[in-house]
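A protein record pairs a chain with a discrete description of its three-dimensional fold. The shape at a given residue is found from the number at the same position. Here is what such a record looks like in full:
>
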Amino acid sequence: MIEAAFAIPGDIALPTGGYAYARRVLERFPRAGVELRHVGLPAAFPDAGTDDVAETVRLLRALPAGTVLLFDGLAFGAMPAAAIRSLPQPIVALVHHPLGLEAGLTAERQQQLLALEAGALALSRRVIVTSAATARTLVADFDVAPAKIAVAEPGTTRAERARGTGQPLQLLAVGSIVPRKAYPILVTALAPLAAIDWRLTIVGALDRSAQGLAALCQAIEETGLQQRITITGPLGEAELATHYARADLFLMPSLYEGYGMVLAEAMARGLPIIATRGGAAAETVPDDVALKVAPGNVAELTAALSRLFQDKALRQRLAAAAWTAGQTLPAWEDTAQIIATVITEVAA
């Protein structure tokens, strides 16, 4: 049995896409002769200090030298090259999206993260990404050889088809409240459509970015939409499933996505979608499933919302296409198998 360790910073029980990916993968090992154990790293990443890096090195150097490290990019991309070189184990990097492409960073911090991640990726044996779009970004902007990359898209659990509500139209957005998710842009785009009876529910962690939460609350207050918009915070799987079931339209205003797991979840439930073309999101959702708009473009988003609010037949066509596409999405067993294959190749 090949021994491997999945090194992940912070609490993997947190309700984010990256942690959900980690949980689902860990649940499906051992697989194909690979034993994958979880190793928790300091939660400060990607804004880790010297002590956090030293503790990470101590934890990983305590593992047998032959252990293959599956190193989550939230930490790996922020590790100094010297610290990575001190590790005796072969490394497989897992990249959901480059850290330097997160919204809300200062120019200095962005450049620092881009340089750190480029240096880290150069020291990995292989790189696993969650979308072909991220693979292209790593090749073009981080000088990663295409042969070094494997794509392991997130799996999607099969679900019952959404029933919807209809009156008022129930809009759903899911994802941590951080600047990259661009929820204030969504609120601003909805403001001109107040004459239409709709309600928006935003489900996502509230503690990821004080800046992102403050901007969202300010946008809601300035538009006067307090009675139309509910921010639930993070929800358990059963509660979230209830929101999916009663939704009429799924919204993804994100500026950039490494994949967009919630888009796949919406398709698995047959929901019509409005999404931006940020990062991999445009490829995650087929063209016949969603109306797609430019990231950050309020006018385009308002126009797309107005169109779907008023055209029930179009919503139904998109919903039918989403349901069909959702049945073809990969399962988590497929994701785990790709990762196991890469680990096996590195261990050979």
